[in-house]
Amino acid sequence: MALSYPIFLVGFMGCGKSKLAKRLSSRFNVPHLDLDNIIEDELGTSIRAFVDSHGEEAFRKVERKLLLESFKDFKGIIALGGGAPCYQDNMQEILKLGSSVYLKYPAKTLVQRLAGGKAKRPLIASIPDDELQGWIEAKLKERASYYEQATVTFDFEKDRDAYSFMFAQLA
Ligand code: S3P
Fold first, then answer.
1. pLDDT tens across 8-41, in order?
2. What is the DSSP letter of 30?
3. Looking at the predicted structure, is the pLDDT value of residue 65 above 80?
4. Cβ count near 53 (within 10 Å)
5. 76 C-beta neighbours (distance < 10 Å), count
6. 26, containing H or E segment
7. Predicted TM-score of the model (pTM)
8. CA of 14 to the centre of ligand 1 (A)
9. Please, which residues have CB within 8 angstroms of residue 156's CB and are 6 or more apart in sequence?
10. Is the CB of 122 under 6 A from ligand 1?
């Protein structure tokens, strides 16, 4: 299968963007990229280490620069970091570059999915487990208006077969 434009996967941390990008890529034989990996290659260190020493604002600048530069001629599936669509006019740029899919999960499911994945994510690494759901609920509220601009939304609470549906649509 050949894509004529990039497809961006957007959504909160833990919603499965990176894993899905890989699965779609091997199922449909299209290339895939992960913005977080591109950032880490450019920085020469992990996102966690960079944010811990330079702060989130500095990370957002690098993230935006690489988002704007990396996908202009790329015709494949791209997993974006959870915050990427939500800063400056990044979501507008994403919509100009290609098509996008929001992988939507409720906060309580994201908490479960993030169990064991906190340490590499600087924004949640030091949030105690019993405060995580509240933090995610607030952050989701802040970010929802960006995610919801995506071309397509798959709501995994309403539709447990969303993945099969997506694969069928793309087949
Ligand atoms: C972030 C999500 C992370 C990564 C960074 C910030 C966020 O990516 O870009 O830690 O602000 O939601 P994942 O969504 O792949 O965890």
1. 999 999 999 999 999 999 988 999 999 999 999 9
2. -
3. yes
4. 9
5. 19
6. helix 17-28
7. 0.95
8. 9
9. 103, 104, 105, 109, 162
10. yes
> How many Å lie between the centroid of ligand 1 and the Cα of residue 164?
25
Is the distance from the beta carbon of residue 11 to the nearest atom of ligand 1 less than 6 Å?
A: no
Burial level of 136, CB count in 10 A (0-12/13-18/19+)?
buried
Q: Ligand 1, from 34, 36, 57: best to mutate by most atoms within 8 Å of Cβ?
A: 36
**What percentage of the chain exceeds 70 in pLDDT?**
96
CA torsion through residues 75, 77, 81, 86, sign: positive
**Cβ of residue 13 lying under 6 Å from some atom of ligand 1:** yes
- pLDDT at site 169: 62
* The pLDDT of residue 67 is above 60: yes
- Written as one string, the DSSP assignment of 56-116 is HHHHHHHHHHHHHHHSTT--SEEEPPTTGGGSTTHHHHHHHHSEEEEEE--HHHHHHHHTT
Atom of ligand 1 nearest to the CA of 120: 10
Q: Is the pLDDT of residue 51 over 60?
A: yes
- Provide the 10 A C-beta neighbour count for residue 131: 10
Nearest to 59 by CA among 46, 75, 73, 78: 46
Q: What is the CA radius of gyration of the chain?
A: 15
